[in-house]
Amino acid sequence: MVCLGQTVADLDTRLASLASSGHRVFLVSTRATETEADAADHSPYSLRERGRRILEVGLRDAADPFEALDRLRREASLGATAVVVKQREWLPLAERLRGERGWRVLDLSGADIGALGDSAFAAALAETFPAVSIVVVTFNNRELNRACLESVFARTEWPRYEILAVDNGSTDGTPELLADLARLHSNLRVIAFAENRGFPAACNAGLAAASGDPLVLLNNDTVVTRGWLTALLRHLAANPRLGLVGPVTNAIANEAKVDAGYRGLADLPRAAADWTRRHDGETFEIPMLAFFCVAMRREVLEAVGRLDEAFGLGLFEDGDYCRRVRAKGFDIRCARDAFVHHWQNASFRRLGRDAYFALYEQNRRRYEAKWARVPEESARP
């Protein structure tokens, strides 16, 4: 958490309590203490540890406050961040941080934070973060399902999210696994089908039950890394015309595939952190986002509609949806500062080679027939 216009001298109990509960608290003021190290790297801010998880940030006179705090974001690896404003003159900076970096803002200018109880202050802070709904479709692959969901619980620092696990008639113990996880995690809801209704239909069921905004579709054959969701939401916040945004990955058949330099899951957290730090803030336009992981605002879902269930078990429904998103005038981009490991086609491999290619050809023809009378340029605004 970043508190603008405050120093240790007037630290109140609510902020101290937040730090003691495990959060980092950055107290930002215009008072900077120069050191030889600061001068040598021309740092726009000074940073001093004043207590456990309490750090005092002094902005230098010549520094642009936004650029200084953005540099702090990168150097301190800030993820989901809330800004508490105590003086009204700091509000323009806070609003810019919200609009361009997705930081959440709690405006307490003129209020007495100390008058709030710990629980009331924590609740007000949490409410600044929009609730996000993450839809995960499962079909057998019990251990991949476990790895995916446990990575989300362990590495998602966004404080308000729900997971809707939609099971397509698994018979390998996955329903029991989901029930066990739901007992451990109150933000996991399970939708269980007796049969395999296909990926598009299961996604639609999850989206229909979702209460949050933004919305995320995440494959069960993925393992997320720290900062994955925060980065995607930051890009959605900064670009109102962004319809779909997805991460880069190790395995996919398009431009989203990158080599992050790891050979196993044990090395994934370090490699992903190095990669995303080097590519902070970078996105690129991409013709099609594969739906192993995509984020969107609810307004996009309402404008574009549900996934096309005519694609049955799946394949080509993501390409179809991307064209429909563009037809509504939205952009589609891939974020280089969000990385998600992907096993790729884990469920479809269970079909067997012949059945997989038969499904591929069937849905390819369906896709081409659907768009045959729609020129590519008409799918753009």
Give a topology summary.
Blueprint: E1 2-4, H1 13-20, E2 25-29, H2 36-40, E3 45-51, E4 54-59, H3 65-75, E5 82-85, H4 91-101, E6 104-107, H5 118-127, E7 132-138, H6 142-155, E8 161-168, H7 174-184, E9 188-193, H8 199-209, E10 215-219, E11 222-224, H9 228-238, E12 242-248, H10 268-278, E13 283-285, E14 293-296, H11 298-304, H12 317-327, E15 331-342, H13 353-371
Parallel strand pairs: 1-2, 1-5, 2-4, 5-6, 7-8, 7-10, 8-9, 12-15
Antiparallel strand pairs: 3-4, 10-14, 11-15, 13-15
Q: How would you characterize the overall build of this protein?
A:
- The protein is of the alpha/beta class and 381 residues long.
- It has 2 domains: 2-127, Rossmann fold; 132-379, Spore Coat Polysaccharide Biosynthesis Protein SpsA, Chain A (Alpha-Beta Complex), CATH 3.90.550.10.
- 37% of the residues lie in helices and 22% in strands.
- It has helices at residues 13-20, 36-40, 65-75, 91-101, 118-127, 142-155, 174-184, 199-209, 228-238, 268-278, 298-304, 317-327, 353-371, and strands spanning 2-4, 25-29, 45-51, 54-59, 82-85, 104-107, 132-138, 161-168, 188-193, 215-219, 222-224, 242-248, 283-285, 293-296, 331-342.
- The strands form 3 sheets. It has a 6-stranded mixed β-sheet, with helices on both faces.
- Helix 4 packs across helix 9 (228-238).
- The longest helix is centred in the last third of the chain and has 19 residues, at 353-371.
